[in-house]
């Protein structure tokens, strides 16, 4: 009997031991399963985060590609000559395109013609041979050369007084060709109004410009119309090139009470020579643009050349990326004009300037 009881106890002990062992194995398996699930969950979370990041990067890259068509645009810039107004227009143009396309998506080939028409033609031919995506022509002679060189490559002009007079468009409202752009024309009648406001006693006005510049001829004609409307006598004093300036300005100051110079590139680039003759003679010079006036004129009806260059850059962007056609893009004009004067010249002439005018350089 004792043996049977002992055997039963041993059996129960062994069974308990087996059950305990089974319970331990089951716990380890459960813990292992939980750990695996946690690891798998973490991997899934990391995978989802990576997919979201990749998706955001792809979306950003797709947006950049949409803005640039995935290419680097090659832009030829033909600037007629170097002076502050034209330099500012070129700077504005490049700033607009770089801002809109991205610095790595546009390349500029800047060429300066040094005021020579043959150089303009050579530069324009180079751009055509290089098959640039667009040409920016800065000033009238540069624009005429570029427009003559191609009927296919879009040409955007700036610092041009009148595109029709330059012979590069059918009309300023509907160019009809591969040319469009921005004009630097400040209203001529308002410029003459400024002249009479500052020199009301003037009996004769000398209109001085370079006869080789079509934009200057156009402005001279408009100035004559405005002076005729006021009953003021006037005469033209023209130069063929910079070599004539001293002789012509000397003659003009001897015959006139005030000189009017439109936005003429040849004289703008040699305004110091005009100042050196007109100022000692006590003759005021009214200029067609601010940088020329800053160099030796008395007053101007100012526009921002940087702004018209910038607006030309926006037009170029629309042509390159939005499919707009130059033939259908009206010529744009300066957003605003401001009466400004050269304080140094006003003091030398002992002239008291109206309080509502701004001093050049004191913005």
Report on the architecture of this protein.
The protein is an alpha/beta fold and 363 residues long. It folds into 3 domains: 1-61; 72-184 and 305-328, Rossmann fold, CATH 3.40.50; 188-302 and 337-359, Rossmann fold (3-Layer(aba) Sandwich), CATH 3.40.50.2300. The chain is 52% helix and 17% strand. It is built from 12 helices and 12 strands. A 7-stranded mixed sheet has the order 7-6-8-9-10-11-12, with helices on both faces. A 5-stranded parallel sheet has the order 2-1-3-4-5, with helices on both faces. Helix 4 links the parallel strand 3 and strand 4.
Strand content: 15-25%
Order of strands in the sheet with most strands? 7-6-8-9-10-11-12
Poorly predicted segments: 1-50, 53-65
> Based on the structure given, which CATH architecture of the largest domain is correct?
3-Layer(aba) Sandwich
Number of helices: 12
């Amino acid at each position: 009997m004792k043996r049977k009881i002992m055997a039963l106890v041993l059996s129960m002990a062994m069974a308990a031991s087996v059950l305990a062992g089974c319970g331990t194995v089951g716990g380890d398996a459960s813990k292992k399963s939980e750990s695996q699930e946690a690891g798998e969950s973490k991997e899934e979370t990391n995978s989802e985060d990576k997919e979201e990041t990749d998706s955001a990067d792809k979306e950003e890259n797709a947006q950049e590609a949409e803005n640039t068509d995935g290419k680097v645009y090659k832009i030829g810039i033909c600037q007629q000559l170097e002076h502050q107004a034209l330099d500012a227009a070129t700077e504005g143009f490049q700033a607009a395109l770089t801002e809109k396309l991205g610095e790595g998506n546009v390349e500029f080939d800047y060429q300066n013609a040094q005021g020579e028409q043959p150089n303009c033609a050579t530069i324009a031919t180079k751009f055509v041979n290089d098959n640039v995506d667009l040409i920016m022509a800065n000033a009238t002679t540069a624009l005429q050369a570029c427009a003559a060189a191609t009927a296919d490559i879009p040409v955007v002009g700036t610092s041009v007084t009148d595109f029709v007079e330059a012979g590069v468009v059918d009309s300023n409202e509907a160019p009809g060709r591969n040319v469009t752009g921005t004009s630097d024309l400040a209203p001529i009648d308002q410029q003459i109004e400024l002249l009479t406001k500052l020199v009301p006693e003037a009996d004769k006005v000398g209109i001085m410009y370079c006869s080789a510049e079509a934009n200057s001829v156009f402005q001279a004609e408009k100035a004559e119309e405005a002076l005729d409307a006021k009953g003021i006598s006037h005469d033209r004093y023209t130069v063929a090139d910079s070599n004539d300036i001293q002789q012509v300005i000397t003659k003009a100051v001897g015959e006139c009470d005030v000189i009017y110079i439109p936005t003429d590139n040849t004289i703008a680039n040699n305004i110091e020579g005009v100042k050196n003759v007109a100022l000692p003679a006590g003759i005021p010079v009214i200029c067609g643009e601010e940088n020329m006036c800053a160099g030796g004129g008395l007053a101007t009806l100012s526009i921002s050349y940087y702004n018209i260059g910038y607006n030309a850059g926006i037009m170029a962007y629309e042509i390159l990326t939005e499919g707009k056609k130059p033939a259908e893009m009206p010529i744009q004009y300066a957003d605003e004009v401001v009466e400004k004067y050269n304080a140094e010249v006003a003091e030398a002439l002992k002239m008291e300037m109206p309080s509502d005018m701004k001093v050049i350089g004191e913005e």
